[in-house]
Request: fold
Amino acid sequence: MDVVEFRPTPDQFAWTFGGAAPSHRIKPGTVLKLWTEDAFSGRLQRTSDLPSQVLDMTEVNPQTGPFFVEGAEPGDTLAIHIVDLTPARDWAASTTIPFFGALTGTDRTALLHAPLPEQTWIYQLDRAAGTLLFEAQRSDFRTVLPCSPMLGTVGVAPAGREVRTSLVPDKFGGNMDTPEMKAGTTCFLGVNVPGALFSVGDGHYRQGEGESCGTAVEGAMDVTLIVELIKGGAPEWPRLEHDEDYVVVGSSRPLEDAWRASQVGMVAWLGELYGLDPLDAYELLTQISLSPLANVVDANYSAVTKIEKALLPPADAFNGMHRHLRSLSKGLV
Amino acid sequence: MDVVEFRPTPDQFAWTFGGAAPSHRIKPGTVLKLWTEDAFSGRLQRTSDLPSQVLDMTEVNPQTGPFFVEGAEPGDTLAIHIVDLTPARDWAASTTIPFFGALTGTDRTALLHAPLPEQTWIYQLDRAAGTLLFEAQRSDFRTVLPCSPMLGTVGVAPAGREVRTSLVPDKFGGNMDTPEMKAGTTCFLGVNVPGALFSVGDGHYRQGEGESCGTAVEGAMDVTLIVELIKGGAPEWPRLEHDEDYVVVGSSRPLEDAWRASQVGMVAWLGELYGLDPLDAYELLTQISLSPLANVVDANYSAVTKIEKALLPPADAFNGMHRHLRSLSKGLV
Amino acid sequence: MDVVEFRPTPDQFAWTFGGAAPSHRIKPGTVLKLWTEDAFSGRLQRTSDLPSQVLDMTEVNPQTGPFFVEGAEPGDTLAIHIVDLTPARDWAASTTIPFFGALTGTDRTALLHAPLPEQTWIYQLDRAAGTLLFEAQRSDFRTVLPCSPMLGTVGVAPAGREVRTSLVPDKFGGNMDTPEMKAGTTCFLGVNVPGALFSVGDGHYRQGEGESCGTAVEGAMDVTLIVELIKGGAPEWPRLEHDEDYVVVGSSRPLEDAWRASQVGMVAWLGELYGLDPLDAYELLTQISLSPLANVVDANYSAVTKIEKALLPPADAFNGMHRHLRSLSKGLV
Amino acid sequence: MDVVEFRPTPDQFAWTFGGAAPSHRIKPGTVLKLWTEDAFSGRLQRTSDLPSQVLDMTEVNPQTGPFFVEGAEPGDTLAIHIVDLTPARDWAASTTIPFFGALTGTDRTALLHAPLPEQTWIYQLDRAAGTLLFEAQRSDFRTVLPCSPMLGTVGVAPAGREVRTSLVPDKFGGNMDTPEMKAGTTCFLGVNVPGALFSVGDGHYRQGEGESCGTAVEGAMDVTLIVELIKGGAPEWPRLEHDEDYVVVGSSRPLEDAWRASQVGMVAWLGELYGLDPLDAYELLTQISLSPLANVVDANYSAVTKIEKALLPPADAFNGMHRHLRSLSKGLV
Reply:
């Protein structure tokens, strides 16, 4: 297997899906050993750092890539398997950015309130214990949380000649911010432009479902991926596969539309896997869907439909690609 | 402990929250052994039964109750502990009702499409195995699902002199349709009228998160509850407690507002339990919230914010009421 | 014509649609000469009156009625013609109520902001000039606005055994808060219960479209109506007719659903008037709809679809009922 | 005054805001005499033409431009005055595109319905009478409508390195589809990139508010503009000025957020014009806002807040730029 290692310098960060020149051309089947900077571009380092003072909002959510995958054409499907996610620092940061988040007025949910206060939290990672320490800033409360690394952002160049900032999730993937994007996940994305031009970033050492305040436990990440190409078969919305689950991610507003997109995406997937009529799939989904929210803060909200494989007969999604990549990954960690 | 048993006849069903005369007056601490009819009022019995032919839409979601709780006054908190939920029949039903459901036009999401086809599914219960059999109606697909009994509807009389149909979830609880309402759950509801006037119904042998098509695996249920009264302390939105989790349910439209209500409700609860400042609670919630949807089909959508107790220091919500009821329940099953 | 005059005392106010005993039984064709108190129940009288200090939130939006219309049965259509609206006082009030309004967090759009400041404005009416004086409270700005009286609230008892507060708009009419409800308007409402039980209230001396802060120029009103009954023909959503326009009001959340309901209601009405196929009506509506918002602040938002009659061939909605009532009204003012 | 004439050939059309090379460099003060192709790129010509057969969905809504305005820098304000809009053909077209429109399931409001039927309408223009003939396709109904030319799409390159398709409205303007964009209007847009790079297109011979089915009376247009540059002063959302009105357009989802953005934009504008405190502006807006919807069909919905100048003291928005351009335009028509 080809192995490509890449630790971008700040001038090599990509800030968009589409519109950025490829950092590398890779063959399908390549292993990528990457480093991703945190969503704050590393500028938020201590609890006294306030977003309005240290952040440059034109340089947030830096992406590592994009990678041009040889042979990828519109209508194809990119399979990105996450082999490993390891925190690259011993701390991570979270903060309240003015007029950003789910429980504040924003530029869209435009209200007349003054912004909520800016406050920054730094989480220390205990690497041996696999835990993060939450320390309240306005009282003495502390609690220890498991470290559960995930990638907030995995995406390809959009369709329709568009270029979108790395803050946006949509059909091309992007900033979906779902805890389902973890080591062991295969992410299937439809290809929109020659080479697919995918990139990744936005490592979270941990995140709740919904990402209420808009920033997870944001930290630099060492990322190991295997990338494969499936000719044809592009799904309309991003699909994820774990050993235990099928997942579809929809991204839109209002939130019910994001969720509906994920549900209709799963109806389609169940049809492909089992020949189920849409009405039977609708009924089955009604009884077995898990629906953990992803984010309710980004330019589009992201909602998840998830099904435990144990509730279904055996099947080979995308001809068993996930199992194939999973077996390849065993030798890599 | 006082024990009240009640198996309502059809003329005794309640169809509303508020506006119905109490079926019983009970003392706090009473054990209730109830039977609830299914949401179709038992009229959907075979796959050839179509909603437009056999249902009376003015008689759906019958409630058992309401119960007048002695001493309950507006501002108090009712604690309803679900001791046991046992399917009362060996089958249950689900169906697609014209212009009702998440993936169809409705009277609110008003569109120009003809309704989706009506189709009915009957699930056989294997009581020994604790499973339900899903049989597709448009192909030979079948799969076996765990039976996971829950109550779709638990509520008190609303505030503001209102009477709401049993199809509606809101601050008074009602038709929240969340799988979190299962045996072992304590449900805390604010009291709005003297006696609280709570009722229960809408047993589901199983339901996915979101209840996409609008009807779960609907079946008659044998329900055992213990009811307690807490003076004062009424939460704005329904709170649930399991041995392992704290849960707040918000109900509104659009879906993001339902979820925001559950989040702000949890910020308040964390403040009560730990003295956390709202901004610290917002940050903590961002990293530990579970956000499984409840329903995206009812008159209001319901969304859940859930926190695993294991991530927090020990605490006694409502002075340990859940633990108290849990211990009482041990002797009852 | 029978004439009924009614000036309710505070103990005679109705606070709900449904659930209130009728104040009068009237025959179809009756003229009603009514007085309505303002939405604050008259408690906000000077700019130093703050809502949190002087309002009783369980006694807002008092209704005059309800009136039991003899012969009205479910499925019938009530036609309420507004003959005249005359301000009953020489001043009116508006205010910002904490966590109520379109540009603030609310109990549904639940956020972590402190409430916006409370502020009260009193408008002096110049009866001769037909104008209201707006005086800014935080600077010297003043401007003179035309007095344009309207009724915020016109409704019947709801279907489904429900009782709703007078703050809610829905299929039964209610608190729609549309400036289209003015002298010269005929309002057609479907009857849900025997006698229809309609009431009116919430006079506005003036209101913008959307009613942003949640309170219009609220004032007591002298109201003259003629009430007629049409057997059958109940529209799903409230319809209004002016000499110049047809109007349908939809009420729901999110706002697009309220508007969709009004659009689909107009597609139905065009079908009834001209035999238009829904697809042709959809196209025509696309090119001729006026879509002035009504309110984006109440329990449901209300949106309007409006068509100028001049763009359509002549037609007799409800067999010319509006024209009939209009001619009757000439002798009454 | 410099005059630039431009009638793009199909290979010169722009399909995006941002990302397209400028067709011309112009000086502030230039008069542009342009031709715009219709949104179907001229491919829909008779009622037998169905979208799925004749449209290329990667080539819809062609733009004329973009124009690089010398001296325009981020933070500046572009003033685009519409001198004249004259239909360039004697007919125009409208159609129902599968899964596009307000009263159908879409890729976002994802449902399980089959698409609505495709149907195409051709409107004949009577140039002398200034009217369009609507002919129903499924019955004999016909009616004559005034021709009211407008531009659906006026926009600049977006911020944040983005490139958006010409189908999208947002802060950069774009496909707002509001009937307020007519001859006599000055459109003020914030500049995001050097040269502003604005383009126009999507002529409508007529459109209702909301653009329900997703396509107006779409026709090629002869467009005369004057373009001016204001240093600084960039508004967050597009502002329009007529002789009689101030207008702010917000674009987002759900629809209430689009409208809130337009309202908060108007609060800001009233503050700039009159020194009004936001709370006083909120109150005033509540009583004088007109809120005609623009579109409820595009990637973002667009809502309008509009105020009649006659209700306000005299003022000079943007130092009287509209009046200046209006007087210049007199000599041009």
The longest strand of chain B covers residues 77-87. The helical segments of chain B are 51-54, 255-274, 278-288, 321-330.
